[in-house]
Design brief:
Order of helices and strands: HEHEHHEHHEHHEHEHHHEHEHHEHEH
Structural class: mainly alpha
Largest sheet: 2 strands, antiparallel
Radius of gyration: 32 Å
Number of domains: 3
Low-confidence stretches: 1-20
Strand content: 5-15%
Strand order of the largest sheet: 1-2
CATH class of the largest domain: Mainly Alpha
Helix content: 55-70%
CATH superfamily of the largest domain: EF-hand
Length: 331
C-alpha cells in the first residue's frame, strides 16, 4: 500500500502544482484586469470607467450594483481558465492569443502586443484599437489564402480542398477569357496578349505559352479544349498526392514547402557553391583557378592534387566532399 502511494505521489504533486499555477494565473489576470480598467485606482471599476463591451460588464457584475470588484473579476477569470483547461490541447492560434492577452479581457491592446503602431493598425481589421481572437483568426485565413493561391478561389464549397470538377472550372474560365475570337482554341498570339489580364490569367497564359508545343499534340498550332483538359488533369493528378480525388490545402502547402526546401538545398549544395566559386575566382575564364586567383592560399596546395598549379572544379569538389563542408561562396 505504501509503495502504491509513493508511486502516485509525483502525479499528485504535479496535479497540485498545476492547480496552483492555474490559481496564480487567475489571480494575476484578475489584478491586471482591475488595474487596467480602474481609472482612479480605488479598487473598483464603475460603469463610467468601463470602456469594454456592456454585455461583458453585466456578465461580471453578479450582484448588479453597477461596479466590478476583484472577487467578481476572479470568478470570470476562473471560468475562463476552467474552460481552457477542459478544452485540453490548445491550438497555436489560441496559445498566441492567450499569451498576449495579458489582462484576460478577450482582446489584445497595442501595449500588450508591443508592435509599431503602423503594423498594429494593419492587423486591427475593424479599427477599434484592439485585436480580437476573430480578427487574428481572420488574418490566419488570409495567410492561408495567400499561400494556397488559386486553390482558395476554386474551392467553391469552402471545404479546404479542390475536387476535379472544381479544378476543371479553371480550364473553362481560362479558355473563356483568353480565347479572344471565341473559336474554342488558343493560339500563340492570343496567349501573348496579357496586358489587361488578371494576375491569375497572366500566369496561366505565360505557362501555356511556354508549354505550347508540348500541349499541342496534333501540331495544328492551336490548343483545343481536349488538349488543355489532358494537361489540366495531369497537373491535378500530380498535385493530388494521396490520390483521393482532391487537392487539399494541406497538400498544396506541403508541396510549396517542399519547393522552398529544394531551392534552399540547391543554394547550399556542393555543386552550386563550386560553380559560384569558379564564376568569381576564375578571372581569365579558362575553367581553372590559379594560385594568384585563389584567395584562400593556405588551402591551395591541399586541393591541388596533381600539383599542376591550378584547381579544377573536380579537385575543389573532392576536397570539400572529404571534409564534409562547403567551399567559400566568395573568393
Amino acid at each position: 500500500m505504501k509503495t502504491r502511494m509513493l508511486l502516485f505521489l509525483p502525479i499528485a504533486l504535479f496535479l497540485v502544482a498545476s492547480d496552483l499555477r492555474a490559481q496564480d494565473r487567475v489571480e494575476a489576470r484578475a489584478q491586471k484586469f482591475l488595474l487596467r480598467h480602474d481609472r482612479n485606482q480605488d479598487g473598483v471599476i464603475t460603469a463610467d470607467e468601463w470602456k469594454g463591451p456592456q454585455r461583458l460588464f453585466e456578465k461580471i457584475d453578479k450582484n448588479g450594483d453597477g461596479k466590478l470588484v476583484l472577487e467578481e473579476i476572479q470568478v470570470l477569470m476562473a471560468k475562463r481558465e476552467k474552460k481552457h483547461r477542459q478544452k485540453g490541447k490548445k491550438s497555436r492560434l489560441a496559445a498566441f492569443f492567450q499569451r498576449y492577452d495579458k489582462d484576460g479581457d478577450g482582446r489584445i491592446s497595442p501595449q500588450e502586443l508591443d508592435l509599431p503602431p503602423v503594423l498594429f493598425e494593419r492587423l486591427d481589421l475593424n479599427g477599434d484599437g484592439y485585436l480580437t481572437f476573430r480578427e487574428i483568426k481572420k488574418l490566419k485565413e488570409l495567410q492561408i489564402r495567400k499561400k494556397v493561391g488559386i486553390l482558395y478561389h476554386l474551392d467553391t464549397n469552402k471545404d479546404k480542398k479542390v475536387s476535379q470538377k472544381e479544378w476543371l472550372a479553371l480550364l473553362d474560365f481560362t479558355l473563356k477569357k483568353l480565347d479572344k475570337n471565341g473559336d474554342g482554341f488558343l493560339t500563340k498570339d492570343e496567349l501573348k496578349k496579357r496586358k489587361k489580364l488578371h494576375w491569375m490569367l497572366k500566369n496561366a497564359a505565360r505557362q501555356l505559352k511556354r508549354a505550347f508545343s508540348h500541349i499541342d499534340q496534333d501540331g495544328d498550332q492551336r490548343l483545343s479544349r481536349e488538349e488543355l483538359r489532358k494537361i489540366y488533369l495531369k497537373i491535378f493528378q500530380e498535385q493530388d498526392k494521396n490520390h483521393d480525388g482532391f487537392i487539399s490545402f494541406h497538400e498544396a502547402l506541403l508541396a510549396k514547402r517542399g519547393r522552398k526546401h529544394r531551392k534552399m538545398k540547391g543554394e547550399h549544395s556542393l555543386e552550386f557553391r563550386v560553380r559560384i566559386l569558379f564564376e568569381r575566382a576564375d578571372k581569365d575564364g579558362d575553367g581553372r583557378i590559379s594560385k594568384e586567383e585563389y584567395a584562400h592560399k593556405e588551402e591551395f596546395d591541399k586541393i591541388d592534387k596533381n600539383r599542376d598549379g591550378y584547381l579544377t572544379p573536380n579537385e575543389v569538389a573532392q576536397f570539400y566532399l572529404k571534409r564534409s563542408s562547403l567551399p567559400p561562396s566568395s573568393n
